Amino acid sequence: MTARTRLLDREVAQAMSALSAAAKKGLGDPSLAELVMVRASQINHCAFCLDMHLTLARKNGESEQRLGLLDAWEEAEELYSERERAALALTEAVTVLTDGFVPDAVYERAAAHFPDGELAHLVGLIAAINSWNRVMVGRRIPPGGYTP
C-alpha cells in the first residue's frame, strides 16, 4: 500500500491519481509537468511533494541549476523558455487564489503558448498537485517516504 492510499480512502486516492496521470499525459512534456508540480509544492510548503517531484524532475533529466532557481524563475528567466515561464506564472496564479482571480494577462499569456486542450490539462495538473499538497500538508506527511 502506498502512502497515498493510507492517507485517503482508496477510491478517492485512485480518482486523484487518475486526474494527476491524465493531466500530466495530456500536457505531453514531463519536464514541464514536474516544474509545475515543484513550483506549486514550493508555494504550498509541501515537503513530501517537493521531495517526490524534485526526484522525478531529476530522473527526467532536469538540471540542478533550473531546479535550484525555480523559486526565483522570474529573475532567472534566461533559464526557462517563454512557454515554461507562462506555465509557471499560471501555476502561481491558480495556486494562490487568495489574491483573487487568475489575472487575465496571466491566463492570456498561457493561452498564447498552450493550445486549448493542453491548457486544460495544465490547469488540471495545477489543480491536482494543489490537492495532493493539501492532503500531504494536512496529514503532516514528512519528506523521504517517496520511492520511484
Give a short synopsis of this structure.
This protein is an all-alpha fold and 148 residues long. The chain is 69% helix and 0% strand. The chain has helices at residues 3-7, 10-27, 30-43, 47-59, 64-68, 82-95, 104-113, 116-138.
- What profile does the largest beta sheet have? none
Low-pLDDT regions: none
> Helix- and strand-based class?
mainly alpha
What share of residues is helical? 55-70%
Instruction: Note the overall shape.
Output: globular
Summed over residues and divided by their number, the pLDDT gives a mean of 92
CA radius of gyration: 15 Å
Which range does the strand content fall in? under 5%
Let me know the number of strands: 0
Helix-strand pattern, N to C? HHHHHHHH
* Number of helical regions: 8
- Termini, distance in Å? 14 Å
Structure commentary:
By secondary structure, the chain is mainly α. 69% of the residues lie in helices and 0% in strands. The protein has helices at 3-7, 10-27, 30-43, 47-59, 64-68, 82-95, 104-113, 116-138. Helix 3 runs antiparallel to helix 4 (47-59) and helix 3 packs across helix 8. The longest helix has 23 residues, at 116-138. The protein is globular.
